[in-house]
Structure formats: C-alpha cells, structure tokens
Write a sequence for this structure.
C-alpha cells in the first residue's frame, strides 16, 4: 500500500498529482505545520529529516520529491506518463526535474527567509538595520537571480507546451511547486508563457483531483 506523508501547504502536492495521474490507490497522512510554519517532530518518525513529501511503499520509505517521482516512474509508469521515452524529451525532463530543487527552490527559500527577518522579535533599534540588510540582499542578490530563472523558464515555455515537450510529465510536477508558490505572491504578467502553463496545470484533471485531496499551495 502506498502512503503519502503530506505536510499541509507543501511540496507533497506534487506527489499527490503524480499518484492521481498514474491512477494509483494511496493513503494520505496529513501533518499540520507548527506555529513557526515548520514540520511537526512526528514526521521525523517517518524519515530522519522530517521533511515532506515522504512516500512509503510497503517497507520502503522514500524522501525527496524528485526521487519519489523517479521511483513512481520506475515502478508504476508503464505508459510513460511521468517520464518520457524520447531522448530529447528525456533530456528536458531531467533538466527541469533537477532544476526545480537545485536552482529554483533555494532562491525562493532565501527570499522567504529574508522577507521574514525584519518582522522577527528583536530590540527596536536593531529592526531598521535588519530591514536594510534584508532589503539589500533581496535587491542585489535574490531578485536578479530570480529574474534570470524566470526568463529562462519563459524562454523554454515559449517553445514547449509542457516542460518536457508536448506532454505533461514529472518535470511539470516538480516545477509546479515553485511557480505556483511564486505566483501566489508575485505578479507574473511579464511572463505570459509561464502564466499559460500555470493555467494548463490548474486545468489538468489529475492536478484537480490532487488539489481536492491535499489543497493548493497558498502563500509563500
Ligand atoms: N528537496 C526536498 C525538500 C523537502 C522540504 O523542505 N519540504 C518542506 C515542505 S515544502 C518541509 O518539509 N518543510 C518543513 C520544515 O522545514 O520544517 C524535496 O523536494 O522533497
């Protein structure tokens, strides 16, 4: 039996989408975030890092959303719904599958943390300094890199309908989390192909079934 350990408002949505696309039966165990927005300690009973998503398949426990998608592709995807067969599509699939967590998410996590710094408890006279430093890091380091990332994605989606070509794949699932998260707080109107792709994601029946079960990511 497949069990998806799902942290509310999190990357687990990707895996629910994949499981729905493959038409697999699975249980969802939902964990609520702590007041500090972290995962509860109970998730560490499933995997030592206690980060979601985690998938259990019988005795096997798999963490890392990219690794989980690859596992599902290897074990349950005889019709290549998650992982394309052709060489060119496979290259795009691999690139974007890794890009999502390797290049995109670290920037978003940094942005989230630096945005939060000025509102953390601290002596009142330190706050303006903290705010200046945070804004400087966001403006000079994070924003330009994020714009490069979005330009790269926009350019790719100008040529391809989905990340790996004509068909939806696990690469779209990996890329959905950072792009949905970003679009919930930042206008993407300068990136019409990303917006078109986000619209297609939201229209996908398997995505809609997943969201009905685990919810869509809301605020970043
Ligand atoms: N690279 C990992 C990241 C896992 C991760 O950081 N998950 C977040 C949820 S979106 C988490 O569990 N956060 C809770 C915490 O850090 O306490 C993946 O793609 O699965």
């Amino acid at each position: 039996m497949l069990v998806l350990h799902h942290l509310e408002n999190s990357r687990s949505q990707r895996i629910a989408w994949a499981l729905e696309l493959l038409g697999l039966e699975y249980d969802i165990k939902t964990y609520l975030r702590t007041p500090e927005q972290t995962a509860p300690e109970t998730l560490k009973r499933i995997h030592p890092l206690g980060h979601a998503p985690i998938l259990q398949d019988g005795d096997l426990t798999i963490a890392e959303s990219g690794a989980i998608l690859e596992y599902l592709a290897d074990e349950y995807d005889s019709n290549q719904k998650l992982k394309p067969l052709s060489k060119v599509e496979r290259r795009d699939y691999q690139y974007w599958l890794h890009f999502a967590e390797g290049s995109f998410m670290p920037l978003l996590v940094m942005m989230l943390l630096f945005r939060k710094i000025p509102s953390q408890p601290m002596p009142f006279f330190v706050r303006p300094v903290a705010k200046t430093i945070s804004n400087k890091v966001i403006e000079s380091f994070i924003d330009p890199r994020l714009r490069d990332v979005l330009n790269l994605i926009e350019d790719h989606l100008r040529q391809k309908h989905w990340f790996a070509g004509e068909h939806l794949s696990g690469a779209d699932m990996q890329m959905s989390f950072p792009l949905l998260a970003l679009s919930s707080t930042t206008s993407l109107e300068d990136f019409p192909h990303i917006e078109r792709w986000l619209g297609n994601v939201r229209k996908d029946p398997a995505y809609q079934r997943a969201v009905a079960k685990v919810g869509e990511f809301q605020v970043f």
